[in-house]
Amino acid sequence: MVKQFEKREWNGKYLVPESRQKSHGGYRESKKHYGFQDENKLKVLHVEELSNLYLFVLKDPSNEKHQGYKYLISTGATSYTAFYTENGFKRYLKRTGLKKQLVEKRENGNSYKLIGSYQRITMSGNWKLLNEFGRKKGLTRTKVLDNGDYTTGYYGNGKIYLINPNYPRTIYNHFRE
Q1: What are residue 118's DSSP bridge partners?
Q2: Which of 107, 159, 110 is nearest to 130 (CA)?
Q3: What count of other Cβ atoms lies within 10 Å of the Cβ of residue 91?
Q4: CB neighbours of residue 15 within 10 Å
Q5: Is 151 helix (H, G, I), strand (E, B) or coil?
Q6: CA torsion sign, 10 to 11 to 14 to 16?
Q7: Which positions ≥6 away from 91 have C-beta within 8 Å?
Q8: How far is it, in rounded angstroms, from Cα 103 to Cα 112?
Q9: Residue-wise pLDDT tens digits, 1-45
Q10: Vertex 25: Cα angle to 19 and 28 (nearest 5)
Q11: Is 150 helix (H, G, I), strand (E, B) or coil?
C-alpha cells in the first residue's frame, strides 16, 4: 500500500495535514516564502553565542588536507570557519571584536586562543527590513558567509545580524569574494 501525501497548511507554528485542519478557521493558509508566515516583520529566530574559539595559522597552507586555507578557527574539537588570506581573517576579527593571544609556536604554524565572544543572530523577514534595522541601530554593513552563500549582514557591539536562508535575501557571487 502506498501512502499518499496530504496537502498541508501553515498554522503559525508548523504545517498541518489537511486531515487535521479545523473547519472553523482555526488554522490559516500562508502563501509566504518557504511556508513561513510573515516575511514583512523582522524577528529573531536563533542566537548563537560563540566563545572559546581557537586559531591555528599554518606556515604552509598548500597541504592537501587544509585545501589552501591558512587561518583555521575551531571550537576546540570541531572546525568552525577558515580563511585563505590575512585580510579575510582581519575582517573577521574586526566584525566579531575578538583578539588573538599566542598559545604555542609549532614547526608547521602557531596556535592562538581567541579572546572574547560574539553573537551571531539569525532573523526572519527580508533584506529590506534588515537594511532598515541596520541603519536605525547604526550598525556596519558587511558580507557574511552563511549556509554556503555570501549574504548581507550587519555587525556592531559584538553581534552579527543576518537573514535566515529560508527567507528572501541578497546572495553574492563566491568568485568575487
Answers
A1: 50
A2: 159
A3: 14
A4: 13
A5: strand
A6: negative
A7: 142
A8: 5
A9: 444 444 444 445 444 444 444 443 333 333 333 444 455 678 888
A10: 80
A11: strand
Residue type, position 171, single letter: I
Q: If you write DSSP's letter for every residue of 22-43 in order, what string do you get? A: -TTSSS----SGGG-S-TTS-E
- Give the number of other CB atoms < 10 A from CB of residue 70: 20
Cell, residue 35? 511556508
The answer to whether 113 and 51 are in contact (CB under 8 A) is: no
Contact between residue 130 and residue 171 where contact means Cβ atoms under 8 Å apart: no
With cell 541596520, the residue in question is 134
Positions of E strands within the chain: 8-10, 15-17, 43-50, 53-58, 71-74, 79-83, 99-105, 109-115, 118-124, 140-146, 149-156, 159-163, 171-172
Is pTM beyond 0.90 here?
A: no
174 vs 86, higher pLDDT: 86
Beta bridge mates, 49:
119
Give phi and psi for 131, each to the nearest 5.
Answer: -60, -45
